[in-house]
């Protein structure tokens, strides 16, 4: 299997994940914003994240869509998923005084443990994709 074929499966799965979660937050804007405000961080941060998270998720999906930017998409996926997984892990082990609600459409039905392991799997997929993808200089023709 060539490197481009190896990185195709992870990129497709991550594009589906990021597109679904980003669009779900935008389509269900009021519920999504309310869910961000129900998290354990300050209201000002929740307001910023309500906008930043779905936009970031959709931008990562776009980065993964094109071979010239795919490396950055994988790297961004690893970073964002690591933040999400750490937060979910902290909730799962009871590090916060209260348990906030999940906020990701169908994924909302997952418990914290399942969410943690799904995110961890997606991090592994991102690492596999990153390792099979060369960082490209956008100024150099393909």
UniProtKB/TrEMBL annotation:
Membrane topology (UniProt): Multi-pass membrane protein
Pfam families referenced in this protein's UniProt entry, alphabetically: MauE
Keywords of this entry: Membrane, Transmembrane, Transmembrane helix
Species of provenance: Algoriphagus aquimarinus
Residues in Methylamine utilisation protein MauE domain copies: 9-130
Keyword Transmembrane helix in record: yes
Any one GO BP annotation for this protein: methylamine metabolic process
Taxonomic lineage of the native organism: Bacteria, Pseudomonadati, Bacteroidota, Cytophagia, Cytophagales
Domain of life: Bacteria
Name of the protein this chain belongs to: Methylamine utilisation protein MauE domain-containing protein
Transmembrane annotation, as ranges: 7-28, 48-66, 78-96, 116-133
Subcellular location(s) of the protein: Membrane
InterPro entries, A to Z: Methylamine_util_MauE (IPR009908)
GO CC, alphabetical: membrane
Keyword Transmembrane: yes
């Amino acid at each position: 299997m060539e490197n481009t074929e190896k990185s195709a499966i992870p990129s497709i799965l991550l594009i589906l994940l990021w597109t679904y979660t980003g669009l779900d937050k935008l389509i269900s804007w009021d519920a999504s914003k309310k869910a961000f405000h129900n998290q354990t961080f300050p209201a000002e941060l929740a307001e910023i994240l309500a906008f930043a998270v779905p936009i970031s998720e959709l931008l990562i999906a776009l980065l993964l869509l094109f071979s010239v930017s795919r490396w950055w998409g994988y790297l961004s996926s690893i970073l964002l998923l690591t933040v999400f997984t750490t937060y979910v892990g902290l909730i799962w082990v009871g590090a916060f005084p209260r348990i906030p609600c999940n906020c990701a459409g169908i994924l909302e039905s997952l418990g914290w443990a399942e969410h943690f392991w799904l995110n961890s799997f997606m991090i592994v997929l991102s690492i596999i994709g990153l390792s099979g993808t060369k960082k490209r200089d956008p100024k150099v023709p393909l």
